[in-house]
Design a protein that fits this description.
alpha/beta; four-stranded parallel β-sheet; 8 strands
Length: about 425
């Protein structure tokens, strides 16, 4: 196996505010340990499940297991957990996020304590596990498998959206009613586990905080249309922590307000990520290579800046009808509107909502090239990626490339191969710009 560069992991950021995220990440796990010590409830949970505000309103401290896997990769401390999961029978082609989590839980059970020197103090044993069907099957199968190591209850919900061919006016009520039922089932489970009822006023408070944080995040991304770009994609993969793991809190709102002011100031002063911005790139899809985020700086050495991305992004704002007065129904409406924003446009054009989003980003952000990352163990973001790339090529002639590795497993990464591919891609960008 090729020798990997073990000294480089994270990327040099473009904003000062992004540097605050490291402490927010530490606080995720510190808060969970403190909550356990105080007898409060903590829960494993999945990102983008649309139930964040419910969990916060119930005063349950969330432990984002996917984030912990990314943290381990960024710290280059994932191998012991991956190998342990594989020793327990989990295939190397299964989600590497899940393998790190399962390997961690397995070691913690065997040792009777947190594995020594686990990043950020490790994950304490949860009181419950909250899965969902959103995005992929490991988001509920993972916690089922974790039952081998944890004797705690789990609950999973459906998070669903209609196919692009559906008549939204015809199916809307059904989907919203179904999603509402799913949320209410989760609330009943949480009430049973905590011994207290959900306070609807408190839920409205967390919803308003969540909506405000996501609105600010959207406005920050809109500032990035500026030439030169004031904030790069490597910052995005840090700052998304506030929106996804602190959703429904004042912490997220305050963080994005500060970031907005910094990015706005950079735009007004004409400050870019690098001195000379030659090429503007779109991170078109696939989970980021948490083990090698410095690769974004390598692109910058050629004058290429990733100015926007199509993964772990904030949702574009949606407007829930004013007549919706129930907070749980509001969450169901919001989820439906978020997931169907580009359905009508797709039906009239490419037939694919993701392609429509990419086309819109290419136009808005003056994109010169698109880079995809095919993650070997993430079917959800990799299966269909070539199709999306080919379909996108029918509507634009800008250069595109696909890097292949994994989001956290270094065994699927070759630095030499990536650099060779990137060199060819930069040549294609240069040739096109000369034309």
């Amino acid at each position: 196996m090729e020798t990997k560069n073990q000294t480089k992991t994270t990327a040099v950021k473009g904003t000062l505010t992004a540097g605050m995220i490291r402490e927010l990440v530490r606080n995720i796990y510190r808060s969970a340990h403190e909550a356990k010590a105080q007898g409060k409830k903590v829960a494993y949970f999945m990102v983008a499940s649309q139930y964040d505000e419910i969990v916060r309103a119930m005063d349950i401290v969330p432990i984002p297991t996917e984030n912990y896997a990314g943290l381990c990769a960024a710290k280059r401390d994932m191998e012991r957990f991956l190998l342990r999961a594989e020793e327990d029978g989990y295939s190397q082609v299964l989600c590497s996020y899940a393998r790190i989590g399962l390997g961690f839980d397995s070691l913690r059970k065997e040792l009777g304590k947190i594995p020594e020197n686990a990043p950020d103090g490790g994950m304490p044993e949860p009181d419950m596990m909250l899965g969902s069907s959103a995005v992929c099957d490991p988001r509920f199968k993972w916690y089922q498998a974790a039952g081998r190591y944890l004797n705690v209850p789990s609950y999973s919900i459906d998070v669903v959206a209609p196919p692009v061919q559906a008549d939204l006016n015809e199916v809307r009520d059904y989907y919203i009613r179904y999603q509402t039922e799913q949320f209410r089932g989760l609330i009943a489970f949480l009430e049973e586990q905590t011994g207290k009822k959900l306070d609807e006023d408190r839920l409205w408070e967390t919803i308003k905080l969540g909506d405000e944080a996501w609105r600010l995040w959207y406005e920050i991304d809109r500032l990035r249309v500026a030439v030169p770009c004031p904030m790069p994609t490597q910052d995005h993969f840090s700052i998304m922590v506030a929106g996804h793991y602190y959703c429904g809190t004042q912490v997220a709102v305050d963080f994005y307000r500060q970031l907005y002011e910094e990015v706005k100031s950079k735009v007004e002063e004409g400050q870019g990520v690098i001195p000379v911005e030659k090429y503007r790139l779109l991170y078109g899809g696939g989970l980021p290579p948490w083990h090698t985020l410095w690769i974004f700086n390598y692109f910058e050495s050629f004058g290429a800046v990733f100015v926007i991305e199509n993964v772990y992004r904030g949702y574009d704002p949606v407007e829930v009808p004013s007549y919706v007065k129930d907070p749980v129904e509001y969450l169901a409406w919001r989820a439906f509107l978020r997931f169907t924003q580009r359905h009508e446009r797709a039906r009239k054009n490419s037939g694919h909502p993701v392609v429509e989003r990419l086309l819109q980003l290419i136009d808005d952000y003056k994109i010169d090239g698109v880079v995809f990352h095919a993650c070997r163990s993430c079917r959800a973001t990799t299966v269909g990626q070539i199709h999306i790339k080919n379909l996108l090529g029918r509507y634009t002639d800008i250069p595109m490339m696909q890097l292949v590795s994994d989001m956290v497993d270094l065994r699927d990464y070759s630095e030499a191969q990536w650099k060779a591919q990137i060199g060819g891609f930069i040549d294609a960008l240069s040739a096109r710009s000369k034309r």
